[in-house]
Design the sequence.
């Protein structure tokens, strides 16, 4: 860490020598150990030694950013020169803003040390568990890894953050097969701080493997109806939260004024049972930075509180551009407040609908309208899941759905980068063949 | 150009084990303007060396962010140790990879790095033009970008290679409002293989294309929703390329075949109309240089074209050397790696349906009630061949003539069923190459094809 800090200071010095009014540098070193399974068999073991230095400078209110992974005296000087050249080619902009309160903090989180043998044993055990419990599942690809990183952030205003972090990641891509029958593929994953228990018990891995195997007899449905869509935590993040964040609350749509929520701060935008926040400090999170990309100490914040829009998800730059408040972190580690009914109780109250595990569609329109295939889905009839579906499309409007909430489950999925419940929304058009 | 630090590495290869060592530098440059504000102005570069060793059916791999002889020796040892670990803990007991004859390929592409000012000034001139000539837009984004990869590869058997692939683009994304005030978007990429300064010398050369994009978004803003259901459509060449890549190409990547893709059961069977022939081209297609040419892959295989569908019959897969041995096929140069720290994976190169004999105007004239679907913002497909593409630009066809423009919609279907409905194939191939294919790693790919008349499920509103 001392060497990284020394190098970061050297890069800053070079930028100052070239006349930077402000500079910030991030220097990192990381090691990754990874196992790959392809087509159900171990295929590869990787060990990666990476490092990176990235520099942002401001001169005459112009900004330039560069990064490289070569270190050395000449490289530090060349990096600074490239950054200054890049920024001088740009245009002045008063909106750039970086942390100006000197501080020095050190963070240690996650699993900074890798236990490679245990990673291998847990990987092998996961594969064996899947083969035993779900023999029709073919693991197209499974990647398990541990990444450890040391990171130093310095800026010319006297801010210094030193981070030592690490995490285990398990990522699975699989489908079920039986003779001529086969299902759509499904992806699942979890980030962990430790390997204390079998990985199949983490997040929703076991339940979702079982559900994919149950889809071998999927068939299309006839006709079209407007009904309720029950979204799994994964599909909820993909369809509803991703759209709301990107299309309604992010830098781009607020700077260019295309967000349909641009004038809704403090107003109701969702059912009052809905509260959504970004919580990198939440103790269940394995990912999430302790400071923002502009050097400010990160804090958890609420985007929607009891249905009212509490904050946009803006960087300092975009906040200054639009006259709004910046977000308190880089909008990672999403949490949606759980409800008070179980998933089974919610489904029991649905006359006709669809249970969606994955959505295959494009980025919804700026208006929130979306349309795509409900992958890995099941038909809900008269309060219960009746059969698996294929080739079924769903369409709707995310902004409308947030105000047409049927229920939020008391169960949540904790996967190391989010805490999300199941949620059911009305007014979704469900079309068969 | 990348200095050869690997020339003596062969001495460190263990006899009898297939071994690769690769030095690589990757660069990206980008400038982005949002309504005239420079919101991105960045340059990145990464370089390093990696090694991969095959033992008994499994690979060991290692990389380090340093490009030197010493670094190469270090990763060769780590990759070897990883291969030994895997072979001893999960022995697959498979034979060695079939050897290839030794060869050498040296690129003649020299990547000259332009200063950042070049990208910003060009983007600024384009933005100024759009701001002045497209007054009804409610938002505009202009990006000027270049990415490149240069690699030095030494292999224990096969072709040693020095390759370079730069590509550069200008992206324009326009937003306009419908009469009801709802925003609609349209996007276009200009450019292709080559450095930014080679591809873009005069902003005025793009003005007519920008004018057309503006006309199209205004028509789209006044557009209508497509009527949902199974329809006869003409897919434009861009959409055919998307279909070739996403819905067919991925299912015939041999690693996905082993992972359970639908194509595993279809080799030798009719999967498309006899009018359809589809290939993954290496470096030349239809008598011209392919959009993103590949001459040698990252396993040391000289690149050749792969015919995937011939006259409607599925005839081939895309392979790595390992899967080629498994399927008793010949590897053709599809194993490619994105960064120095990535291992080669089976990837497409330039995937396209071959042209037919029909004229686009005749194809449109032949439809009483259908759609002409031109552009897509995104596409996704399943290993079952089930696909979904967003349609960002299209028109009604009524009584053989183009009608109103369409608002955003989607099409979906199952590739090997939908391709059987193709009954007219256009005579002109349209290529695109600006995106990245996402698998475990990103990868630049080309995709293309002619217009196709076929039946497809359209999503409507």
Sequence:
């Amino acid at each position: 860490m001392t060497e990284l800090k020394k190098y970061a200071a050297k890069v800053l010095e070079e930028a100052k020598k070239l006349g930077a009014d402000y500079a910030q540098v991030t220097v990192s070193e990381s090691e990754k150990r990874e196992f790959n399974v392809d087509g159900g068999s171990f295929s590869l073991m990787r060990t990666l030694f990476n490092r990176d230095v990235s520099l942002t400078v401001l001169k005459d209110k112009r900004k330039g950013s560069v990064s490289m992974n070569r270190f050395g005296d000449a490289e530090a000087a060349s990096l600074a020169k490239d950054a200054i050249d890049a920024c001088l080619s740009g245009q002045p902009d008063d909106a750039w803003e970086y942390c100006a309160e000197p501080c020095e903090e050190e963070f240690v989180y996650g699993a900074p040390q890798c236990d490679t043998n245990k990673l291998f044993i847990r990987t092998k055990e996961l594969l064996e568990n899947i083969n035993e419990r779900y023999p029709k599942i073919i693991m197209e690809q499974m990647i398990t890894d541990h990444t450890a990183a040391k990171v130093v952030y310095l800026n010319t205003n006297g801010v210094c953050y030193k981070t030592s972090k690490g995490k285990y990641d398990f990522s699975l891509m699989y489908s079920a097969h039986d003779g001529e029958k086969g299902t759509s593929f499904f992806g699942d994953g979890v980030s962990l701080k430790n390997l204390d228990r079998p990985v199949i018990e983490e997040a929703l891995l076991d339940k979702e493997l079982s559900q994919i195997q149950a889809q071998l007899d999927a068939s299309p449905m006839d006709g079209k109806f407007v009904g309720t869509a029950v979204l799994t935590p994964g599909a909820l993040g993909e369809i509803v939260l991703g759209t709301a964040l990107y299309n309604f609350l992010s830098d781009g749509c607020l700077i260019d004024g295309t967000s349909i929520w641009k004038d809704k701060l403090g107003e109701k935008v969702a059912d009052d049972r809905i509260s959504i926040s970004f919580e990198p400090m939440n103790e269940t999170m394995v990912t999430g930075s302790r400071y923002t990309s502009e050097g400010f100490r990160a804090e958890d914040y609420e985007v929607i509180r009891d249905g009212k829009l509490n904050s946009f998800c803006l960087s300092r730059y975009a906040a200054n551009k639009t006259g709004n408040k910046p977000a308190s972190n880089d909008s990672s580690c999403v949490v949606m407040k759980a409800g008070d009914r179980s998933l089974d109780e919610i489904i029991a109250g649905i006359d006709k609908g669809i249970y969606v595990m994955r959505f295959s569609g494009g980025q919804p329109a700026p208006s929130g309208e979306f349309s795509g295939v409900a992958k890995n889905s099941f038909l809900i009839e008269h309060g219960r899941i009746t059969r698996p579906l294929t080739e079924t499309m769903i369409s709707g409007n995310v902004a409308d759905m947030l105000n047409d909430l049927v229920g939020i489950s008391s169960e949540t999925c904790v996967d190391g980068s989010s805490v999300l419940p199941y949620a059911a929304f009305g007014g979704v058009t469900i079309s068969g063949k | 150009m990348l200095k050869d630090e690997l020339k003596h590495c062969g001495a460190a290869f263990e006899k009898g084990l297939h071994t690769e060592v690769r030095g690589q530098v990757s660069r990206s440059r980008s400038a982005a303007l949002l309504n005239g504000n420079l919101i991105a102005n960045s340059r990145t570069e990464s370089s390093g060396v990696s090694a991969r060793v095959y033992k008994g059916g499994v690979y060991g791999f290692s990389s380090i962010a340093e490009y030197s002889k010493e670094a190469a020796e270090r990763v060769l040892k780590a990759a070897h140790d990883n291969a030994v670990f895997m072979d001893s803990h999960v022995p697959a007991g498979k034979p060695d990879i079939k050897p290839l004859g030794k060869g050498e390929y040296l690129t003649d592409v020299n990547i000259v790095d332009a200063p950042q000012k070049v990208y910003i000034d060009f983007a600024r001139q384009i933005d100024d033009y759009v701001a002045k000539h497209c007054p009804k837009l409610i938002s505009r984004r202009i990006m000027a970008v270049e990415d490149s990869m240069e690699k030095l590869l030494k292999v224990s058997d096969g072709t040693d290679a020095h390759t370079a692939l730069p590509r550069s683009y200008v992206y324009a994304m326009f937003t306009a409002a419908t009469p009801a005030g709802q925003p609609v978007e349209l996007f276009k990429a200009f450019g292709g293989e080559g450095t930014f300064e080679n591809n873009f010398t005069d902003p005025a050369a793009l003005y007519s294309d920008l004018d057309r994009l503006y006309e199209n978004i205004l028509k789209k803003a006044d557009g209508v929703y497509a009527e949902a259901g199974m329809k006869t459509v003409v897919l434009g060449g861009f959409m055919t390329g998307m279909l070739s890549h996403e819905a067919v190409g991925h299912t015939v990547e041999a690693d996905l075949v082993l992972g359970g893709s639908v194509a595993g059961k279809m080799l030798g069977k009719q999967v498309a109309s006899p009018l359809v022939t589809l290939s993954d081209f290496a470096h030349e297609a239809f008598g011209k240089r392919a959009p993103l040419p590949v001459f040698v892959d990252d396993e040391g295989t000289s690149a050749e074209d792969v015919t995937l569908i011939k006259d409607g019959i599925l005839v081939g897969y895309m392979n790595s050397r390992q899967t080629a041995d498994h399927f008793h096929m010949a590897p053709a140069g599809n194993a490619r790696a994105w960064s120095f720290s990535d291992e080669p994976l089976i990837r497409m190169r330039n995937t396209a349906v071959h042209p037919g004999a029909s004229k686009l105007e005749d194809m449109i004239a032949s439809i009483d009630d259908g759609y002409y679907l031109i552009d897509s913002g995104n596409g996704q497909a399943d290993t079952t061949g089930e696909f979904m593409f967003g349609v960002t630009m299209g028109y009604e066809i009524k009584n053989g003539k183009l009608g109103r423009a369409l608002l955003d919609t989607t099409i979906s279907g199952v590739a090997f069923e939908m391709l059987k409905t193709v009954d007219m194939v256009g005579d002109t191939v349209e290529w695109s190459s600006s995106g990245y294919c996402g698998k475990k790693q990103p990868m630049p790919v080309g995709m293309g094809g002619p217009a196709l008349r076929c039946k497809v499920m359209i999503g409507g509103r």
Residues 229-458 of chain B form one domain. Chain B has a mean pLDDT of 94.
